[in-house]
């Protein structure tokens, strides 16, 4: 779901709105900081789990890894910007000037919208994978490792292509509210912004959403009608595979639902602004709705990791193993450091005597073992 155009005049905070209290400012900063922490830790752990666990390197998890990458980049880009806006009380303050300021302004919104588009298109790729896995289980391997890599690269290229106009639509301008600060703003007029938003929304949200509705409808109908033929042994194997596919299906449907719940409100708000459907609303009321809907959209990047771990036992087990492995390595390093420190404080003559004693004991044990083996062979 694209948020292109959220910086047009219609969607900027009102100039005559009341100033937020310090308490509200602190709350917003804390909430955005928590969002950044949860998204960073959660998506990083998902990436570690998928990359280091052979058991879950299936195609669907490869796509989930791609979503985790886009969610992580998205949060790292937008959260500091939003915190800066809250602190300065300016819609989109920009503290860099000149060529660097203009380039980073354009790049920031380009990356933001690219990551959002990548998430939506990756959900379509996941739906396609589930379609072959459940509707055509005998052809579930049609998405080979080579094809899925091509799909991921294509997703990023398509997302970048549709959002390339951001490099022309955004620019740095002197703030009307504070003449000492610059803002990174959407400079196209309302007609250009509307055309851009409708185009990107149609191809990167509505069309993918309709595609997924059709795919998942076919999948659900297939699951309800399917009967498992064959022998008892083959039926058990197929039932096990069916249960596994259904668990994965529940997880990806939960991810899709979370995406819609998080991103649909802000897009409805954008449509209403462009078409003037709530011009009678008060300035403070519109600002409150804008802040809430934008924050809800941003939380999607932090919610997804919780869904993966809540629905997948393999993810939970792999995460626990990774954490345990790291703790064991740290403990081993501490023990080695302690042993080295103790060894450095022991005189060389003592170490030599202990080594000689240990060598004699090993020779004696070896001799006794040879005698024992000789008696057994006799």
From TrEMBL:
Coiled coil: none annotated. Keywords: G-protein coupled receptor, Membrane, Receptor, Transducer, Transmembrane, Transmembrane helix. The keyword Membrane applies. It holds the Pfam family 7tm_1. The keyword rRNA-binding does not apply. Residues 42-308 form the G-protein coupled receptors family 1 profile domain. Signal peptide: none annotated. GO terms for cellular component: membrane. InterPro entries: GPCR_Rhodpsn, GPCR_Rhodpsn_7TM. CDD domains: 7tm_classA_rhodopsin-like. It is a multi-pass membrane protein. It is found in: Membrane. GO terms for molecular function: G protein-coupled receptor activity. It comes from the Eukaryota. Its main location: membrane. The chain crosses the membrane at residues 23-50, 62-81, 118-138, 150-170, 195-223, 248-270, 290-311. Belongs to the G-protein coupled receptor 1 family. This is QRFP-like peptide receptor isoform X1. It comes from Actinia tenebrosa (Australian red waratah sea anemone). The gene is LOC116292607.
């Amino acid at each position: 779901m694209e948020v292109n155009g959220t910086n047009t005049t219609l969607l900027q905070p009102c100039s005559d709105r009341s100033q937020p209290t310090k308490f509200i400012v602190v709350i917003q900063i804390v909430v955005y900081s928590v969002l950044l922490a949860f998204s960073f830790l959660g998506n990083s752990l998902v990436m570690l789990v998928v990359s280091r666990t052979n058991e879950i390197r299936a195609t669907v998890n490869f796509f989930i890894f791609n979503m985790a990458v886009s969610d992580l980049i998205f949060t790292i880009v937008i959260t500091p910007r939003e915190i800066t806006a809250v602190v300065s009380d300016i819609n989109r303050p920009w503290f860099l000037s000149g060529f660097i300021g203009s380039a980073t302004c354009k790049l920031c919104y380009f990356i933001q919208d690219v990551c959002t588009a990548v998430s939506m298109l990756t959900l379509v790729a996941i739906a396609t994978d589930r379609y072959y896995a459940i509707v055509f289980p005998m052809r579930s391997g049609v998405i080979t490792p080579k094809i899925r890599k091509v799909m991921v690269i294509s997703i990023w290229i398509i997302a970048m292509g549709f959002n390339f106009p951001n490099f022309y639509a955004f620019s740095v301008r002197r703030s009307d509210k504070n003449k000492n600060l610059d803002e990174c703003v959407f400079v196209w007029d309302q007609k250009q912004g509307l055309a851009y938003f409708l185009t990107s929304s149609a191809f990167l949200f509505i069309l993918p959403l309709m595609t997924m509705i059709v795919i998942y409808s076919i999948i659900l109908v297939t699951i309800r009608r399917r009967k498992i033929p064959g022998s008892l042994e083959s039926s058990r194997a197929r039932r096990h595979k069916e249960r596994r596919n259904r668990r994965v299906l529940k997880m990806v449907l939960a991810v899709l639902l979370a995406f819609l719940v998080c991103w649909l409100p802000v897009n409805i708000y954008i449509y209403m602004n462009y078409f003037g459907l709530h011009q009678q609303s008060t300035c403070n009321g519109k600002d409150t709705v804008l802040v809430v809907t934008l924050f809800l959209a941003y939380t999607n990047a932090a919610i997804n990791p919780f869904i993966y771990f809540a629905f997948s036992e393999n993810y939970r087990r792999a995460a626990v193993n990774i954490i345990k492995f790291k703790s064991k390595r740290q403990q081993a390093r501490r023990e080695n450091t302690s042993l080295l420190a103790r060894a450095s404080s022991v005189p060389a003559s003592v170490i030599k005597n202990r080594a000689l004693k240990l060598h004699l004991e090993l020779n004696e044990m070896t001799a006794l073992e040879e005698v024992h083996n000789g008696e057994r062979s006799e």
